[in-house]
Amino acid sequence: MDFISSEVVLYLLLTGSVVGFLSGLLGIGGGVIIIPTLLWLLSGCGLDDQVLTHVVFGTSLAVGTGTALSSSTAHRKRVKISTRLVLMLALGSITGAQLGGYAAHLLSGEILQIGFGTLLLFISYLLLRPLKDGRSRGGNPSGMLSGKPVIVGLGLIVGSVSAIIGTGGAILTTTILVLFLKCPIHRTVGITSSMMVFTATSGALAYIFNGWDLENLPPYSLGYVNLYLMMALVTTSTITAKLGVRLAHRIDPRPLQQVLGVFLLLIAAEILTSNLTT
Hints:
By secondary structure, the protein is mostly helical. The protein has helices spanning 6-26, 31-42, 49-76, 83-106, 109-128, 148-165, 169-179, 185-210, 227-248, 254-276, and strands at residues 221-222, 225-226. It has one domain (8-276). The protein is built from ten helices and two strands, in the order ααααααααββαα. A hairpin with a 2-residue loop joins strand 1 and strand 2. The longest helix is centred in the first third of the chain and has 28 residues, at 49-76. Residues 133-144 have low confidence and may be disordered.
């Protein structure tokens, strides 16, 4: 299969549709769908294995910027989002994403995929064992961990993890907000989407900078971010993210969470098995 073909574009448009919808509905980063799909899709396109994983991760972060922006805008029309909390988390995550992007540049694709597979195991656990959203306690967004240094530090961790493995910031942020800050789930998804605009942008820029001088990149690449892949995915993800947000405020997302949890568990098993047994 050719890297630039109508067949690849069709797969990318369909993937972008699913990514945007799930991001808006569940508040999870689209990378959990984009990364395994691109790794499978591009493995048969003749790309250099030394940069394949890095290109997939960098492009995933770039797509995450557009998807998070679309989702955040839609959520802000429906719920009140703490700008102060978003900015404190973003302050740490922007710095963390730069550090994580540099670390990813130094690591092999195999190690990055093992890290991603491990994260998928954690995400599938959270999805299969739904967390309480704090509504019975009133959902206080300035609860247990309200100190500025602590929140900025949490953002730093989220940004670093996101950039190293191309995704994960959304689910980590959602977990932190629900478990420790006692935010209601609908408000949490909005805060997470808003913060991920900063995190994903910073991470994508780190991948662009660290891969800038490489010669074995696929066509239409800026460093490790591929514009061809990014534009095809963003075209549909930004549209379906708004649909996901609209549905999130009307239904209980838990049944879909559990289905997605099983799906991600299977993907994690495949990625970890293929990388740990070679």
